[in-house]
Amino acid sequence: MKQMKCFYSRRFFECCCLLTVFAIEFVFGSSDLGPDPEVTLNAGTVVGAWRKSPSGSRYRQFLRLPYAKPPIGELRFKDNLKPVLVFVHGGGYRSGVSASFYYNPLHLMDTGDIVVVSFNYRLNLFGFFTLGDDAAPGNLAVRDSLALLQWVQKEIRFFGGDPKRVTVAGHSAGGAIASYLMYAPEAAGLFHALILLSGNILCPWAMQSTNTAEASQRVLESVGCHGGKSSDDIVECLQSVKVVVLQKAEEALERKGPLLPFYWTPSVDSGTSTPMFPQRITKDTPLVNKVPLMMGVTRDDGVVTAFSHLATKNYLNKLNSTWDEECADYLLFGDFADSQDAKRRCDAIRAEYFGPDDGQISFDQGFDFISLLRDQLFGICSADIASNALKFAPVYAYSFEHVPVDNSFLKLFLGSRVKATDQIAPEFDGSVHGSDVTTLFRLFILDFTRKPVDSALMSRVRSNFISRVVNFVKTG
Ligand SMILES: *[C@@H]1O[C@H](CO)[C@@H](O)[C@H](O)[C@H]1NC(C)=O
After folding, report:
1. Domain span including residue 63
2. What is the pLDDT of residues 176-229, one digit of tens each?
3. What's the rounded Cα separation, in Å, for the pair 197 and 408?
4. Could you read off the pLDDT of 49-75 as tens digits, one per residue?
5. CA-to-CA distance for 194 and 183, rounded, in angstroms?
6. Taking the model in full, what pTM does it have?
7. Which of 358, 360, 363, 365 best tests ligand 1's pocket when mutated (most atoms within 8 Å of CB)?
8. Most buried residue, 26, 82, 240, 441, by CB count within 10 Å?
9. Residue 253 sits in a domain of what CATH number?
10. Which of 314, 315, 316, 320 to mutate to test the pocket of ligand 1 (most atoms within 8 A of CB)?
11. What is the DSSP letter of 80?
């Protein structure tokens, strides 16, 4: 490794890209410090020096190692920094974690071209509980994400990242949080491109203000923090409740039905002094931050909720007679003018996905049901946000159809729920919700010892998808 002459030269003030390593070795009492220590890095061998601490510990000292090209000559005043990818994990606003055993970016690191940042945000009632006022404004998960992006602006250059080239990628509920940035004046300048993997804020599950407000009240009642007090008192009461008690209260919320809308989501917070969602974001809400967009769905995205229904063989048979109510309550997410409107739309959906002739819904239409859920939960809202964004910026859309080798997300969905042989699940091996994410990241959650192994085809798909993502992060 070529030594840079930095000290004692006019270039001293330009030499920022250096680091210093002190490596301690506990060898006491030795007076002979020995030959200079060497360490071989990928970029070459560096030579340091032995030193002795005041109390006699021997340590190796490596000074002024370049960690980037010297910012001299044509690089003077240039940011020799890499574009940044910030990943917002999914999990329905209630689960997931950014940890590397879950989302390991090792294949993204192979490209050597970008800096990857992932982070945790508050989930569940901790991320979304709301009283609709400044005492408990809700949307804390979204506020966490903004705080992270502000941190990136201040600090990422110290990790070699370029704060002026930040792409935010979100999957599922993470995509909903990421897409919110397009509508948020407070996010201006914090990001420069977006990747939305199967989910955005226009999806029917993404914002459930009424559910969230209701669930918040029910939690208050169940932990005894309700009734006649000011919001500040209520929050003070909540802060004294043990975490496990709050979790139990959350779990005890009665599930409404099989096609469950979420309880904890972003909510309209117009009653607060710094609202993030002055009103519900719809496809007519104007975009504020007009950035390039890469986005897509997976072929079998609908499996994410279909599995819990298809796990019992007679669900679809039963749906044949309960369709009108189930559809209105759980497919339209209450989003209809009146019962006539709901009936008209549900009839149309039934004809489209289950055939116009006899209108029968039965078990062997499992794949039609999966397609219906894909379109309803992810597809239509993706088309909506794309057509809105297209007016202002490039939009690159994909449909991810490959089935990853280990199909980790499928296994996560299956969990212990689906066991019996007469169900669709065991023989099903589709490109499920998350198959695009597991191509970008490795999920070691299901098997900590598993070595990354790809088939030849999977390797090709992986490097193809990753190079598209990385190119987008680099050039927008
Ligand atoms: C299924 O629903 C259709 C339409 O409501 C009805 O005509 C038919 O009789 C139902 N079939 C069964 C087996 O219940």
Report:
1. 10-75
2. 999 999 999 999 999 999 999 999 999 999 999 988 999 999 999 999 998 767
3. 16
4. 777 665 566 666 666 555 455 556 665
5. 12
6. 0.81
7. 360
8. 441
9. 3.40.50.1820
10. 320
11. -
